[in-house]
Predict the structure of Sugar ABC transporter permease.
Amino acid sequence: MSQHATVQKRLASRKEKRTYWTRRRREQLAGWLFIAPEVLGMLVLAVFPLLFSLGLSLTEWNLVGGLSAIHFVGLDNFAELFQDNRFLHALKNNIGFTAGTVPATMLIGVVLAAVIHKKLYFKDYFKAAFFVPYICSTVAVAAVWSALYHPSKGPLNQMLIHLGISEPPRWLVDTSWSLVAIMIIYIWQLLGYQIIIFLAGMSNIPDELYEAARIDGASGIQQFRRITLPLLGPTTFFLAITSTISSFKVFDMIKFLTDGGPNYSSTVIVYQIYEEGFQNFRMGYASAMSWILFLLIMLVTSVTWITQSRKVHY
């Protein structure tokens, strides 16, 4: 009897194991194992740095002092930010940079895309010609433009002098023109990307709509306003969001051309974060700046999302 009971117990145990690892559970386990590297990478490379920077923003930490040099200061870093004239100036420059570059790039991009799409021969050549600056190194682009912007020997100012402007702008060394000069380079470099995206959106608009408009006597400008622009709503929305985020993150061009100068006239928030964190080693203060920038981008993106999504035509 004892042997029979033992056999029955083993069979019951095996049955329990078989029923626990059902086919559905095995498939779920396989799914979790497949996404585990992605989840782990996101936790280590995104979530942890985000939470760590939030914690650092509430502390005072000299980077070279090690972890033992961290001191909790509460919201003092955020209070100091709004009394820091350099940060407020960088915030003002960042808002001006975004307000100047995003609408200008999108307006020029959609007009050039419409011309290339409808009226131009050698379309592929012009697509490549406009797109090349976008894939070039920002440092290389900035080096070329720094030569063009040279106050006395640059080709740009030489041309302006020949046109009769005796005192042309000093561009990168002028406090009134340094940020404008960088905005011009930024628009020029980003224009090709916007043209390609707009052309992709225009290629999806049915030709029958334009044929019907022509039969009704609509001019080219009327077709552009009444057909092209409304049906480019999703494309415009996508470019508005990505361009806004990108404009708030501009750094490398400013670092190479002006180092935020002259007299902080071209400094922006990301450059201030770099300066405070990796030159002054004030990691807590730099983290507080990062969170203000994060909240600003989230606010602008949310407003753009709410206002633009109501105008999207599918």
Q: What stands out?
A: The longest helix spans residues 23-56. Residues 76-310 form a domain with the MetI-like fold fold (CATH 1.10.3720.10). The mean pLDDT is 87.
